[in-house]
């Protein structure tokens, strides 16, 4: 069809026309809110590189969880920052660990809210890596698997509704699935960070979670940003090992990967609108350079349009309230 027979502006002329033919719709149901839990009471510590975000003690975690539920958000993702760290990340799987306490507090006060937990060791190890480190400084994949499974099990025993391994160790989904099944938790789903790139966009998160590597980097276990075929291999492997949801992280610089994963797998696809993506918009908004509210809505819509069913975003409450209005 060519002009003048086709006039695209006819169906853009009014707000109602635009609503009627809108192809992609962002919903509150798509959103998950990440939160950072710390020890103590009445703690609400601002995260300098993530304006509007905080490290929260359990009482504030509960209060924020209530806000999320009231806004219509179906779930939260919990990350933990312990008081003490060691080489084995023992607080990750301690029954009285910070995430375990936060899970229990939320499920007691906001039982209908879905609680998802990040399963990794980087926040809990004194070296900041996502697994056990050998004497030569390499991360030992296979020795890490048992610790990850213990961590996931402790989260589920505390009341978590879903676990999300983010470590990128080979074989961890199968190890976690087997452990949960053996302990009577075959009903608990796994959302795997299956396609997680070694990205520069994680910088603010590492301040928030106090999880920056003390030496080296994570390029030996997180994916090379240049690769896309590898994304399908990683997603396929995790599906075969028992993953229920496949996550792509980051989101905005990897919309092509989200689209490709969506086209090639038939499980739900999640995408993480990560800290750097959030902070870039917030910083520009604070400088008065952009309309931050409009920009985040457009960014999340692009993630949805690329094929994501679920979006992890620090803007979840603000976005849900905007959608409600």
Automatic annotation (TrEMBL):
Its EC number is 4.2.1.24. Homooctamer. PANTHER family: DELTA-AMINOLEVULINIC ACID DEHYDRATASE. It catalyses: 2 5-aminolevulinate = porphobilinogen + 2 H2O + H(+). GO terms for biological process: protoporphyrinogen IX biosynthetic process. 5-aminolevulinate 1 binds at residues 206, 218. Keywords: Heme biosynthesis, Lyase, Magnesium, Metal-binding, Porphyrin biosynthesis, Zinc. Zn(2+) binds at residues 120, 122, 130. GO terms for molecular function: porphobilinogen synthase activity; zinc ion binding. GO terms for cellular component: cytosol. The active site is at residues 196, 249. This is Delta-aminolevulinic acid dehydratase. Signal peptide: none annotated. Pfam families: ALAD. Belongs to the ALAD family.
């Amino acid at each position: 069809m060519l002009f003048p027979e086709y006039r695209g502006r006819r169906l853009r002329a009014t707000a109602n026309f635009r609503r009627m033919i809108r192809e992609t719709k962002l919903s509150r149901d798509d959103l998950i809110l990440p939160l950072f839990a710390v020890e103590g009471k009445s703690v609400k510590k601002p995260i300098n590189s993530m304006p509007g975000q905080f490290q929260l003690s359990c009482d504030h975690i509960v209060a924020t969880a209530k806000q999320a539920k009231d806004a219509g958000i179906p779930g939260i993702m919990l990350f933990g920052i312990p008081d003490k760290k060691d080489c084995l990340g023992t607080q990750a799987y301690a029954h009285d660990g910070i995430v375990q306490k936060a899970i229990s507090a939320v499920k007691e006060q906001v039982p209908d809210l879905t609680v998802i937990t990040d399963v990794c060791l980087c926040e809990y190890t004194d070296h900041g890596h996502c697994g056990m480190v050998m004497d030569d400084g390499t991360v030992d994949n296979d020795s890490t698997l048992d610790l990850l499974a213990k961590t996931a099990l402790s989260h589920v025993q505390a009341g978590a509704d879903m676990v999300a391994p983010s470590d990128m160790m080979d074989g961890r989904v199968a190890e976690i699935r087997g452990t949960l099944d053996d302990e009577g938790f075959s009903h608990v789903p796994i959302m795997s960070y299956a396609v997680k790139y070694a990205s520069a966009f994680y910088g603010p998160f590492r301040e928030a979670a106090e999880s920056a590597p003390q030496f080296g980097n994570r390029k030996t276990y997180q994916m090379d940003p240049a690769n896309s075929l590898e994304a399908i291999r990683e997603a396929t492997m995790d599906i075969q090992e028992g993953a229920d949801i496949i996550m792509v992280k980051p989101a905005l610089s990897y919309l092509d990967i989200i689209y490709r994963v969506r086209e090639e797998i038939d499980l739900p696809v999640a995408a993480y609108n990560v800290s750097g993506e959030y902070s870039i918009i917030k910083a520009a908004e604070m400088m008065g350079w952009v309309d931050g509210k409009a920009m985040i809505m457009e960014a999340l819509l692009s993630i949805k349009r690329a094929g994501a069913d679920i979006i992890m975003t620090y803007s979840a409450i603000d976005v849900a309230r905007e959608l409600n209005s």
